[in-house]
Amino acid sequence: MAEHTQLIDAIDIRTAVRAYDAEPIDDDTARQLAMTLDAVNTLAGLHMQLLCDKPDVFAEANASGHLKHAANLIAIVGPANDTEAKERAGFYAERVVLAATLRGLGTLWVAGSWDREAAAKHCRIARGEELYLGVVIGYPEHHAEHLSKSFEELAEYQRTHRPTKSFEQFTAGMSDAARAAAPDWFRAGVEAAMKAPSAMNRQPITFTYNPNADTAAAHIDTTAGDEHWALNDLGIAKLHFQIGAGQGDWAWGDGGLFLHK
Ligand SMILES: Cc1cc2nc3c(=O)[nH]c(=O)nc-3n(C[C@H](O)[C@H](O)[C@H](O)COP(=O)(O)O)c2cc1C
């Protein structure tokens, strides 16, 4: 996988990992992850923390077989009652997920398959902050074998391992003619967002392209049944879109615009 070092490569091979090797994350990797989190926290206005060797957080999910050997966590802590911070959490934590993917680590966003209270006890949560969500992190089960797989094998698995809404559903607000006339960067952005994780795979975000302004917009589809985590999933989808589209920046918020550079 040596030649595949870009974030778009991570998007092409990332999948939710629910079974891990029992091995702890090695010290060097843990240190690098913690440093990445510190840097991203400064940009994001968040307080994400790496918690290693905390299997009590996943005792039930591991015992039921839903997860295997889950023991490490990125705890996503941020300002309480702040909708924009929740969107930023999705955007920036997914950025860390993609960096971890390139290092051969597996990840799983968790809203339900963890003991939130046990996780909160291990975190530093300042006054005015709350614990939003977690991301399990660790070496995927049989990871030596996993590392020997080719990029193409991993990408094929990503493309086929779960259902996805179609490009047309992701651009439900556009006509066929508008889709055909949209620039390549828009299509590439949407295709990267189609590979994004979302709570219960609800894929609650749609995109539109405005030819007059040459901008894209991202919208929460309130019929998708993802009301609890829609802001987080909006942030995740925007990050994937931005990486797929190449250069450009988003404005935060439902309906926020993307300016391609
Ligand atoms: C906010 C959020 C919460 C999630 N919570 C859980 C969870 O509690 N348990 C679980 O097994 N998967 C959870 N997932 C993982 C999704 O089920 C998964 O991302 C989705 O099915 C798409 O699959 P993929 O990540 O392999 O592309 C969550 C994902 C997100 C984004």
UniProtKB/TrEMBL annotation:
Molecular function GO labels: oxidoreductase activity
Signal peptide start-end: none
Protein name stated in the entry: Nitroreductase
Highest taxon listed in the record's lineage: Bacteria
Pfam families: TM1586_NiRdase (PF14512)
Domain Putative nitroreductase TM1586, chain residue ranges per copy: 7-245
Species of provenance: Bifidobacterium goeldii
SUPFAM superfamilies: FMN-dependent nitroreductase-like
